[in-house]
Amino acid sequence: MSSLKIEDILQCYHEISGMDVAIVNSKNRIIARRYSGTPYCSEIHRSQKCLDMCIKSDCRGLCAAKEKKGLHMYKCPFGAYEALMPIFKDDEVVAYIFVGMGIIDDRESPVELMESALAVSPTLNKRSLEKSIAVMPRYSKEKLDAFANLLPMMSEYIEANNLLSDTDLTIGQLIKTYVKNNLSQKITLSDLAWKLHCSTVTLTEHFKREYNMTIMEYVMKKRMDKAEKMLANSELSIREISEACGFPDIEYFSRCFKLSHGMSPSAWKKLYGPNNVKKPPMRIKSTVLPSDGYVQEDETEVESEEVEMEVELDDSVDHIKSAEID
């Protein structure tokens, strides 16, 4: 029987407990998560001062879990309980399971939670805060402990099955892997952001810094490379090749290919196709192509790397990314 994937493990835990759960690597980047969202945390984090307090609390929690090399439960500055469990590889901590648990029945009243938040940031919206507190998950102390005690077993399973083998890859490398595996599909920045658990701005900045090109330019280049190989070696029609390279619009595909190669796909196939012995010329540098390449933000084409729309991440796990630990 094959081992479960990390996403499967987190999904099972989330469905059983109803709690938000994530895997955070040693660089404090979320690499997997399952959550419904915690409105209370989202409201709290509207205040920069409150968010900074939460980050510091999580930083202390990460340090404590690393020092203990075991499960660490703690209460955030605003009354919510959280848990951290290290994941090991060769006795070294390589990642953490992070769980945003909720609050314990009969310990924190709605009034106390409201007062603790407003004491730090009086400008928070009281009505929104009150609504978010009303739907905050509540558990008995026994149930909270039971769910927390599952985390060491999850950590051991992840370690035993070597499920964190890709956690040292850079964001740019992870983007390249995703593009390679999805080249025939529509690739959106929002899909990439969801898959890699970071914002579209983070994606574009990291990729540009690592490879000196935008994600859109890279996708277009890989699609043109694939199209060239298919035209030279395949008996498929131009339309079939267009679709296999991620272009549902054959006219757009032809326009992009001509810009890249100086001739239409049909002309290229006629010169260098499988029935010809003439080899395609080596391209030193491609002509500047349209940067969209069917890399889209939702349903609209993106024309440059200056994407400023953030993908909304659940604050109950996302704010750990900026915590720094020794």
CATH class of the largest domain: Alpha Beta
CATH topology of the largest domain: Beta-Lactamase
CATH second-level architecture of the largest domain: 2-Layer Sandwich
The arrangement of helices and strands along the chain is: HEEHHEEEHHEHHHEHHHHHHEEH
Count of DSSP strands: 9
Structure description:
By secondary structure, this protein is of the alpha+beta class. It has two domains: 6-165, Beta-Lactamase, CATH 3.30.450; 171-301, Orthogonal Bundle (Arc Repressor Mutant, subunit A), CATH 1.10.10.60. 48% of the residues lie in helices and 14% in strands. It has 15 helices and nine strands. The chain has helices at 6-17, 39-44, 48-68, 110-120, 126-134, 141-148, 151-160, 171-181, 189-196, 200-211, 215-233, 238-244, 250-261, 265-272, 315-318, and strands at residues 20-25, 30-34, 72-75, 81-89, 92-104, 138-139, 187-188, 295-297, 300-301. The strands form two sheets. Strands 1, 2, 3, 4, 5 and 6 form a six-stranded mixed β-sheet that branches. The protein has a three-stranded mixed β-sheet with strand order 7-8-9. A hairpin with a 2-residue loop joins strand 4 (81-89) and strand 5 (92-104). Helix 8 crosses helix 10, helix 8 (171-181) packs parallel to helix 11 and helix 11 (215-233) packs across helix 14. The protein is elongated, with a radius of gyration of 24 Å. The two termini are 39 Å apart. The relative contact order is 0.14. Residues 284-288 and 291-326 have low confidence and may be disordered.
